[in-house]
Design a protein that fits this description.
The chain is an alpha/beta fold and 543 residues long. It contains 18 helices and 19 strands. The protein has four domains: 155 residues, Alpha-D-Glucose-1,6-Bisphosphate, subunit A, domain 3 (Alpha-D-Glucose-1,6-Bisphosphate, Chain A, domain 3); 113 residues, Alpha-D-Glucose-1,6-Bisphosphate, subunit A, domain 3 (Alpha-D-Glucose-1,6-Bisphosphate, Chain A, domain 3), CATH 3.40.120.10; 122 residues, Alpha-D-Glucose-1,6-Bisphosphate, subunit A, domain 3 (Alpha-D-Glucose-1,6-Bisphosphate, Chain A, domain 3); 82 residues, TATA-Binding Protein (2-Layer Sandwich).
Amino acid sequence: MYLEAVLKSSSRHAKPAGLILQYGTAGFRTKAEDLDHVMYRMGLLAVLRSKKTQSAIGVVVTASHNPEEDNGVKLVDPMGEMLAQAWEVYATLLANAEEHELQSVVTDIIQQESINMQEEAFVAIGRDTRPSSETLSQAVIDGVTALEATYHDHGLVTTPQLHYIICCRNTGGRYGETTVVGYYKKLSRAFKELSKQAHGCSDDHKCLNVDGANGIGALKLREMEQYLQSALSVRLYNDGSKGKLNEVCGADYVKVQQKPPEGIEMEAGERCCSFDGDADRIVYYYNDCAGRFHLLDGDKIATLISTFIKELLVKVNLNLQMAVVQTAYANGSSTRYLEETMKVPVYCTKTGVKHLHHKAQEFDIGVYFEANGHGTVLFSKTADEQIRQLAREEASDERRKAAQMLQNTIDLINQTVGDAISDMLVIEAILSLKGLTVQQWDAIYTDLPNRQLKVKVADRKVIETTDAERRTVKPPGLQEKIDGLVKKYSQSRAFVRPSGTEDVVRVYAEADTQENADALAHDVSLAVFHMAGGVGDEPKPLK
Ligand code: NG1
Ligand code: ZN
């Protein structure tokens, strides 16, 4: 019976015959006009996942940092994490089933997962500010209602807000109040408590320039301001009132182009940050007196946060193991600084937050950040309990105070996923507590010059990688070629991998000087172009 309704509604969300999509690094992502059927089917999948896990499941309609014309969808698992990898396979099968195959794909999932269709199901839905997002989220709702499940449409929310909401709902409110207002209240309270412990905070520390990428983050930060009151003052640029989403602005633009976004006014030495299109990433930057641009990316953020936590851990004297998790894109200097100076163990995983998140869960405190600014800190149950207990106890003043700071940090950080707003508040609190200017933070270590490029090839899957994507195993000979090129430069490193979100091969290179990093990146791009079936014009040298 339910299958009849599924098929009937599906005819209103028909799949363009022959269209094949993959559940990539962060869900499905492509041109918005190709996604209606995917949304409907992800509504179905969310219901099945909800029945299977007997928990609320989230669906976010967003294409993050992609151009405004694109869209995408991510599913959120019970604790606010990304969808379990085993289910990504079902997602891909569902999205690609032709209309006449839909019934059997749905039935197969139900059978393979032994799903009891009598179970209740609940789906929470949210979306970003793209013009296509409202209609697409309606397609998700149609999928949910076709399977007779209940849902709540949270409308416009940042991706991390929906992750937070799912976690709250499935923990019976233990993680926080299950609303966006609950999110504002929890974070702003923790931020105020934490910042209170800063002494002699200068006005300098108070104002921050924020580039909202013309997206949802700008809207939500504006909403949050009333809860933060005077604890933080921000000047918001690219708030969506004029420009286009992610166009010459936003965290991805700033990180990849290594320059400030358009539409922001920055005086020398002023702290600035950029969110991405769904506000799950953040990068910081400033111009020095000579007008030179300096980027503080996810690696600098991971270093700042882990140093802060490590210093507090020494004070509380609890036996808690902290580690930092990065990807191959982490700047070599950051890894070195963390391992050699900070004596913090560092692990490297494949690109994509789900990989970092899982690795970080292995420690009492796992700090993870992608270089592009997506990251957070995970505290294990043991760490959480020990810290909260000590914060209440009659320990020495210093121990208790450090425990209280850690407790506020736990409450301020969005442990479900990287969150631009939450990360921004953590960073602002740390800078003010440590009395650090953005320049002083930047000076903790010096980044190795680096360059990221993209190469178009006919089929990016011809490239296969190993060793957390740091080496290629296919096509034959490519790795040897890259090794030879890397040897030409000093302090150099390079790797290539197929993107999971765009139809390109990504190239990364770092070296002792910017010229060398650029030259190496170009050399490697040429190797990819010639050995992995490049299309269009041969990559040109960087100017
Ligand atoms: P791909 O396209 O697989 O490189 C990009 C980012 C990831 C991650 C995802 C999801 C880089 C090099 N890659 O993945 O880190 O954030 O998008 O948004 O920044
Ligand atoms: Zn994003």
